[in-house]
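Contributing new records

If you add data, match the layout below exactly. Sequence lines come first and carry their own label; structure lines follow with theirs. Keep one chain per record. Anything else will be rejected by the validation script.
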Amino acid sequence: QVQLVESGGELVQAGGSLRLSCAASGLAFSDYAMGWFRQAPGKEREFVAAIIKSGSSAYYADPVKGRFTISRDNRKNTVYLQMNNLNRDDTAVYYCNAVRSPITYWGQGTQVTVSS
């Protein structure tokens, strides 16, 4: 049974930082590209960042470039999202996913709330 479990979300002040983690089990982690998405209240789920299987390349949505960093540890079956200089627009539920086409797995999400 595949599980993706996100953690690290919390209430933080604008300008602050958080690191999200997503621990994977039940799959060959190093065979999957990993990503982070987010969904704010009343909005569609949107792409945030992704990292390839080896971890040597990463991709970011424009709103988070220069502020967020995605990384992975294939020994620990975990992907991370370091978020710096947070603002209120970053408030959302953050989801990680694992992709090995055509298969995609999703976690349950972790809430990030940024207060001004």
